[in-house]
Write a structure and sequence with these properties.
- With 654 residues, this protein is mainly beta.
- 10% of the residues lie in helices and 46% in strands.
- It has three helices and 53 strands.
- The strands form 13 sheets. Strands 7, 8, 11, 12, 13, 46, 47, 48, 49, 50 and 51 form an eleven-stranded antiparallel sheet that branches. Strands 14, 40, 42, 43, 44 and 45 form a six-stranded mixed sheet that branches. The chain has a six-stranded antiparallel sheet with strand order 32-31-33-34-35-36, with no helix packed on it.
- Strand 11 (134-143) and strand 12 form a beta hairpin.
- Helix 1 packs antiparallel against helix 3.
Length: 654
């Protein structure tokens, strides 16, 4: 018997397998997510008819003589290259761009696929079209530490999109603010001297110094400058008069020296330009200018003249008006300084004859009468010398007018350019919308008063005002009020009374101070940028992001992360076993499935509304088909030729 007959048989059988594999590739050219296969040939064993001989002396070596016994199929390898992406526009279609496999379950075991042609079943589950295998992912929930973010559940579950499901209303519990308050604007009301902690800058290249500025009485400590770390002093100024031309206090330097780090410093004041200059070793051989500050720039008063016309000659009182801010209630103490015949006098607002403050409405308007009340106990007055002025609010509550027997002699208006307002929609427990209005009023350098209110007078908010303080770096100081818990009386409308936290610093969102409210010399941009409440909604759409997050879109404008798709990664994807329905199962040679998510751990991204097509190239497959056909034909010719030789052998007997 001829060995070539059996060799031809192995060739026919091997190429038949190649034709089978190639035919299957061609058949699946339009199968979504299909991965083509290739046939690997290798020779079978060879029969050795003579062994090899080694060289010996002058005789050369002889190679072995072997006769091959045919070909076999060494393997059928699956090629897991990326197939082309085709846009379909179908929201349930999705394609993996890069590595990874969707995880699906048939109810008893997990399988893996690249076919992203999913659809929803009657229960709202995303399933493989034609098989019903359920797509797996991680359910998403709101991060309790940062309500602007979501976190994944730890276990896989079936991806369920309950179209038409209601999203129950959520009451607002947190409102966050960010951006900037313009530090260049003036105080919103005249506030006298800009008191509080401030920095005085070095004038000749030295170090800046921190100082606390206070406004006191009419005597030698009318204004005091207390340098941090100093002994002696502070530097004080007395109030000697009021300049009727410029409407500024006339100051006289009192205590002028202090000791700082063992160096004696002396203040010199120029009353023509308001500049205070601090020298070390003043008048000595080592005299040097250390710091300089313009007091006129720190002054903020309203000047007016009040005349007593009941006497002859008429007496004129040069008067300065300022306000102090109550840090708790937000009320304003109205103060008048006036020149009473060469003596400086300080008077405060009175209500019914007793010292009092100007109360403020929740929206920051003055809560005082707009006309003189009939009852003297309800009358606000300010006495300048012998003249008792009626203090009344404008009709809009934004300004104050001072009247003498019905004649207006002056007014003080809020500087609206120094007030910034913003609005945010918040929700009660029944999902009803309410507009929360917020304003910030600059009351001093680095100090702002915030107020909150709603247009509905039935709703009370407590507290409704407070102080924000900023450091020299323009960020909220560590000692400032950065988070405020409000009590909102929605119970008056039939909903629950609820607490709402205002966050000015970003701390509630684990942000840095720069992401909260700041005070820089830039335009006002502060606004509410987040609130966590919403009204009831119905799920009517969803989308898939690049990271595999399925986001539900509700008709109330809310978007909610529902699931994040799971992707499986394998050490050896070619070791996966095809189990039909364009699915794979792991094998002992593929390695265990490493479950991750898109864009993590080497996994690719997800293209929503698209499908990954088969990676079969028809040009290549037709070429391989012809190669397989020729191999099959040639092997068949070996069989027929061997048969002819055997026939001739039989004919020898004839």
């Amino acid at each position: 018997m001829l060995r070539s007959l059996f060799t031809g048989v192995t060739g026919v059988k091997a190429h038949q397998v190649k034709l089978d594999v190639t035919g299957n590739n061609i058949a699946n050219v339009n199968s979504t997510g299909f991965k083509k296969s290739t046939t690997i040939f290798q020779d079978l064993l060879s029969q050795t008819t003579r062994g090899a001989m080694a060289p010996d002396g002058n005789r050369g070596g002889v190679n072995a003589m072997q006769v091959g016994l045919g070909v076999g199929v060494a393997g059928i390898e699956t090629i897991h290259t990326q197939g082309p992406i085709s846009y379909t526009g179908n929201r349930t279609d999705m394609a993996i761009q890069g590595d990874g496999y969707y995880v699906v379950t048939n109810g008893t075991q997990d399988l893996y696929t690249r076919a992203g042609n999913f659809t929803t079943d009657g229960n709202g589950n995303l399933v493989m079209s034609g098989t019903g295998y359920t797509l797996q992912g991680y359910a998403m929930s709101v991060d309790p530490n940062d309500p602007t973010r979501y976190e994944m559940d730890g276990d896989l579950s079936s991806v369920n999109i309950p179209m038409g499901q209601k999203l129950e209303a959520k009451k607002t519990e947190l409102v966050g603010y960010r951006c900037n308050l313009d530090g260049r604007v003036d105080e919103y009301l005249p506030m006298g001297m800009s008191s509080g902690s401030r920095t005085i800058y070095a004038s000749l290249g030295g170090s800046d110094v921190a100082v606390n500025v206070t406004e006191g009485a009419t005597t030698g400590d009318f204004v005091a400058f207390d340098f941090d770390g100093s002994t002696g002093g502070p530097i004080t100024f007395g109030l000697d008069g009021i300049d009727a031309v410029n409407g500024r206090p006339e100051l006289t330097l009192g205590t002028s020296t202090f000791d700082l780090d063992g160096v004696i410093y002396t203040a010199v004041y120029d009353d023509t330009n308001g500049v205070m200059t601090i020298y070390s070793d003043y008048g000595g051989p080592a005299e040097a200018e250390a710091w300089k500050a313009n007091l006129f720039d720190m002054m903020d008063y309203q000047y007016m003249e009040v005349q007593d016309t009941t006497v002859t000659p008429v007496v004129t009182y040069n008067t300065l008006i300022e306000f102090n801010d109550d840090p708790v209630t937000g009320e304003r103490e109205m103060i008048a300084w006036f020149d009473d015949g060469g003596t400086m006098t300080r008077r405060s607002l009175q209500l019914g004859g007793a010292d009092g403050n100007i109360p403020m409405n929740t929206d920051g308007t003055f809560a005082i009468p707009t006309s003189v009340p009939a009852d003297p106990a309800d009358q606000y007055t300010l006495t300048i010398g012998t003249v008792a002025l009626d203090v009344l609010a404008s009709s809009d509550g934004k300004s104050i007018r001072l009247e003498d027997s019905g004649s207006q002699i002056g007014s003080v208006a809020q500087r609206t350019a120094s007030i910034h307002e913003a609005k945010s929609t918040i929700y009660d427990s029944q999902g009803n919308e309410h507009t929360l209005e917020t304003s910030w009023e600059k009351i001093d350098d680095n100090r702002w008063r915030w107020r909150v209110w709603t247009a509905n007078e039935e709703i009370s908010i407590s507290p409704n005002t407070g102080i924000m303080e900023f450091g020299p770096d323009g960020k909220i100081s560590d000692t400032s009020q950065t988070e405020v818990d409000l009590s909102v009386s929605f119970g008056a409308l039939g909903a629950e009374n609820q607490n709402v936290k205002l966050d000015f610093s970003g701390r509630s969102f684990e942000k840095e101070k720069i992401d909260g409210v700041t005070q820089y010399g830039s335009d006002f941009t502060t606004k509410p940028y987040y609130q966590d409440g919403y009204g009831m909604g119905v799920l009517n759409d969803f989308s898939v992001g690049k990271d595999g997050t399925i986001t539900g879109v509700y008709d109330n404008g809310q978007s909610k992360a529902l699931y994040r798709l799971a992707l499986a990664m394998f050490s050896n994807p070619q070791g996966l076993v095809k189990v039909g329905d364009t699915c794979f199962d792991k094998s002992v040679n593929s390695g265990a499935a490493r479950i991750t998510t898109a864009l993590n751990d080497g996994a690719g991204s997800i293209a929503g509304g698209s499908l990954e097509m088969s990676n079969v190239d028809l040009t290549e497959e037709f070429t391989q088909l012809m190669i397989g056909q020729r191999g099959f034909q040639a092997s068949a010719r070996v069989i027929t030729t061997s048969d002819s030789v055997l026939e001739e052998l039989l004919n020898l007997k004839r």
